C-alpha cells in the first residue's frame, strides 16, 4: 500500500477547500446582483436629477445700494434701494416640466439597468448550469471507460481481440479525456462569467437542480410585445427633447425687474417708491439658431422612438419564434431522446463488458449517446437564454419579483 506524506495530504485538502465553489440558485443570483455598482450608479443619477428640480426657480440677482450725496450736504439726500433683476418667472413652468421629464427618464434608465443586470446574470447562470451538466456527462463516461479499458486489456491478453482493437479503445479513452478537459475548461469559463457580476473574490457555481424544477418556475411569455421599458425610454426621450425645446422658447420671454427705494432723513416723511419693469431678450442669430436646433432635435427624437418601437417589436417576434423552436426541441430531448441516450450509453457499456457487442458497435453507441446528451444541454441553454431575453424585453418597471 502506498501512503501520501502528511504534509502533501494536508496541502491537497487545503487546496480543494480554498478552491471550493459555493452553489447558488438562480433566484439567489438575481437577488445578489441587485447590489451591483451599475445599479447603484443609476440610483445616484436619479438622485442628481431630483436635486436638479430645485434649480427651476430663477429669481435673478438681488442688488442693494446706499447713496449719500455729500456735495449737497443735506441730510435728506441719503437713500437705500433694493432691486431684484432678471427674474425668470415666466419660464418656471417650462423648466419644471423638463425637470419632471428628466426625473422620469432617469427612473426608467435605472429600471433598465436593473433589468439588464438581471438578464446578464440569468444568462451567465444558465450557461454555467448547462456546461456543468455537460462536464458531469463526460466525467461519468470517462469513469465508465476505465472499466472498458481494463476489459479490453483482459480480452487482448486472452487473445479474444486484436492489438488493433486494444489500441483503438485506448485512443478512444484518450479522446474522451481531451474532450472532458475541454468541457471542464468551458465549465470554468462560465464560472468566471457568472462571478464577474458579483463582488470581487466571489466563488459561486450554479446549483445543479433538475431541469423540470427550473422550467416549472418560469412565468408564461406573451406572444406579442405590449409595453416595454425599452419603448418607454425611447418615448420618454422624445418627451424630454420636447420639454427642452419649450425651455429654449421660454428664453425669449421677458424677464421681470422689481425695486424698492426709501429716502433717509429728518425731512423726508418716510418717502419711498416702488419700481417694476421688464427686460426683453433680443432674438439674435445665435439664440434663434439654438431654438431651431432644439425643434429639429425634438422631431428627431420622435422619429427615433418610432424606429425603436419598430425594431424592438420585430426583434421580439423573431425571438419568440426561436423560443418556441427551442422549447419544442428541448421537450423532444427531455421526453424521448435523453432517456434513450442514457439507456443507450449504459446499455452499450454493460453489453461490451459482457461480450455482447464488438468494439465497433460499442464505440458507435457511446459516441451517438454522448453527442445527443451534449446537444440536449446546449439546446436547454439556448432555450432559457432566449426566454430570459424575452423576459428582459417585456419588463416595464422595477417592481419585478425574482
Record field, number of beta strands: 6
Please identify which CATH superfamily we are dealing with. Outer membrane efflux proteins (OEP)
Strand order of the largest sheet: 2-3-5-6
CATH architecture: Up-down Bundle
Shape: elongated
CATH top level assignment: Mainly Alpha
Query: Structurally, how many domains make up the residues?
Result: 1
Major sheet description: 4 strands, antiparallel
- What are the low-pLDDT stretches, counting only 5+ consecutive residues below 50? 1-18
Secondary structure category? alpha+beta
Alpha carbon gap, first and last residue:
54 Å
User: Could you tell me the radius of gyration in angstroms?
Assistant: 37 Å
Which percent range fits the helix content?
Answer: 55-70%
Would you tell me which CATH topology applies? Outer membrane efflux proteins (OEP)
Report on this structure.
This protein has 402 residues and is α+β, with helices and mostly antiparallel strands. The chain has one domain (22-394): Outer membrane efflux proteins (OEP). Helix content is 67%, strand content 10%. It contains 9 helices and 6 strands, in the order αβααββααβααββαα. The protein has a 4-stranded antiparallel beta sheet with strand order 2-3-5-6, with no helix packed on it. A hairpin with a 7-residue loop joins strand 5 (255-264) and strand 6. Helix 2 (26-32) runs antiparallel to helix 4 (92-157) and helix 8 runs antiparallel to helix 9. The relative contact order is 0.13.
Amino acid at each position: 500500500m502506498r501512503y501520501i506524506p502528511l504534509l502533501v495530504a494536508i496541502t491537497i485538502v487545503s487546496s480543494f477547500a480554498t478552491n471550493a465553489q459555493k452553489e447558488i440558485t438562480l433566484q439567489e443570483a438575481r437577488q445578489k446582483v441587485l447590489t451591483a455598482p451599475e445599479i447603484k450608479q443609476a440610483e445616484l443619477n436619479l438622485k442628481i436629477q431630483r436635486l436638479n428640480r430645485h434649480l427651476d426657480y430663477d429669481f435673478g440677482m438681488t442688488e442693494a445700494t446706499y447713496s449719500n450725496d455729500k456735495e449737497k450736504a443735506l441730510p435728506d439726500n441719503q437713500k437705500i434701494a433694493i432691486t431684484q433683476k432678471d427674474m425668470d418667472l415666466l419660464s418656471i413652468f417650462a423648466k419644471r416640466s423638463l425637470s419632471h421629464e428628466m426625473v422620469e427618464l432617469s427612473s426608467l434608465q435605472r429600471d433598465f439597468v436593473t433589468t439588464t443586470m438581471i438578464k446578464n446574470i440569468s444568462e451567465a447562470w444558465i450557461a454555467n448550469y448547462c456546461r456543468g451538466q455537460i462536464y458531469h456527462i463526460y466525467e461519468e463516461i470517462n469513469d465508465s471507460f476505465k472499466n472498458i479499458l481494463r476489459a479490453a486489456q483482459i480480452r487482448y491478453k486472452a487473445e479474444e481481440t486484436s492489438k488493433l482493437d486494444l489500441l483503438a479503445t485506448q485512443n478512444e479513452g484518450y479522446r474522451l479525456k481531451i474532450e472532458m478537459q475541454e468541457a471542464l475548461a468551458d465549465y470554468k469559463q462560465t464560472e468566471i462569467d457568472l462571478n464577474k457580476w458579483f463582488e470581487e473574490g466571489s466563488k459561486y457555481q450554479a446549483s445543479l437542480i433538475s431541469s423540470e424544477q427550473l422550467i416549472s418556475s418560469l412565468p408564461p411569455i406573451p406572444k406579442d410585445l405590449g409595453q416595454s421599458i425599452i419603448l418607454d425610454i425611447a418615448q420618454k426621450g422624445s418627451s424630454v427633447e420636447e420639454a427642452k425645446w419649450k425651455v429654449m422658447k421660454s428664453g425669449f420671454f421677458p424677464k421681470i425687474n422689481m425695486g424698492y427705494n426709501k429716502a433717509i432723513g429728518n425731512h423726508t416723511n418716510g418717502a419711498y417708491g416702488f419700481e417694476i419693469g421688464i427686460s426683453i431678450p433680443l432674438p439674435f442669430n445665435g439664440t434663434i439658431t439654438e431654438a431651431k436646433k432644439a425643434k429639429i432635435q425634438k422631431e428627431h427624437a420622435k422619429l427615433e422612438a418610432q424606429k425603436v418601437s419598430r425594431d424592438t417589436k420585430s426583434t421580439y417576434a423573431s425571438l419568440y419564434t426561436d423560443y418556441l423552436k427551442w422549447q419544442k426541441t428541448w421537450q423532444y430531448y427531455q421526453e424521448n431522446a435523453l432517456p434513450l441516450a442514457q439507456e443507450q450509453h449504459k446499455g452499450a457499456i454493460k453489453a461490451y463488458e459482457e461480450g455482447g457487442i464488438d468494439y465497433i458497435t460499442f464505440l458507435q453507441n457511446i459516441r451517438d449517446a454522448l453527442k445527443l446528451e451534449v446537444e440536449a444541454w446546449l439546446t436547454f441553454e439556448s432555450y432559457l437564454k432566449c426566454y430570459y431575453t424575452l423576459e428582459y424585453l417585456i419588463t416595464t418597471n422595477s417592481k419585478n419579483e425574482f
